[in-house]
Amino acid sequence: MTPKKIFAAIAILVIVAVMQLDCTHPSTEMLKVGNAAPNFKLRNLQGREVLLSQFKGKVVLLDFWATWCGPCRMTMPLMEKLQKEFPKSMTLLAINLQEPASVVRDYVREQNIGSEVLLDEDGSVGSIYGAEAIPLQVLIDKEGKLRRVQAGLGPGTVAQIRSEIQRLQ
Prior knowledge:
Elements: H1 3-23, E1 41-44, E2 49-51, E3 59-65, H2 70-85, E4 90-97, H3 101-111, E5 116-120, H4 124-128, E6 136-140, E7 146-151, H5 157-168
């Protein structure tokens, strides 16, 4: 085998390994269903600090997203619809990953998004929650425990999340 072919084979193996690590599994052991959801503090678009712990006693749906993410543009309205279906028992926190507030604010206004939008400007909360692949939804029960971690959007995803929310009310 020539050095060029060996290098190409190694490069392909490295790329495949990185893809497997990146998109398929949350990056932290803390994200096991049944464990306590890691608390965080982020600013919303109005500059007010929001803590996850302030929603204890309600079901919380975290939706990690970005304006440039095509699948996120599809899931955001679906997650907002869930918020409207369960306005008293569930809170949707739409966590934007690493974009300037001005970009997010413009997008939220243009898309008429009514959910609580939080800014994870440095990506630290996304990293804790394993948001290497977005959109990522994380469902947290009234006691603050993780009940579902869902990357992407597949057939039946919204129905499954809806059913889980109903069960957790």
